[in-house]
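Weekly modeling sync, notes
Attendees: S.R. (lead), two postdocs, one rotation student

Agenda item 3: backlog of single-chain predictions. S.R. asked that every request posted to the team notebook include the full sequence so nobody has to chase files. The rotation student volunteered to paste the first one in as an example of the format we agreed on. Action items at the bottom.

Example entry:
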Amino acid sequence: MKLITAIIQPDKLDEVREALVKQEITRITVSRVTGRGQSIEEDIYRGQEVALDLIPKVRVDIACNDAFVDIICETILKTAKHNDGKVGDGKIFITNLEECIRIRTGERGGKAI
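Predicted structure, as returned to the notebook:
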């Protein structure tokens, strides 16, 4: 089992979600987040160093069985990119998911996803 976390531009959320649904991936969690993926440069404002603002992004989390990892990642890669790609299009993180438990039934593992 894997947990796929994608950080994408807010304007790409609907496109990514629709593409995932077409691939029959419907169990996703979406959060509004802020962050900065590029190196943060310090700026001087009124004589003090200040960090540049954080940028609004969308975080999409998908827990899946190993067989779906490539399908999900390829779908996100195709739909989250602006044209030929631009700085800030986002990132995808894939982490091992040790356990999943469905609260309603107590099922564990891949069946719970």
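Discussion: group reviewed the output briefly. The chain has a mean pLDDT of 91.
Action items: rotation student to repeat for the remaining queue; S.R. to check formatting next week.
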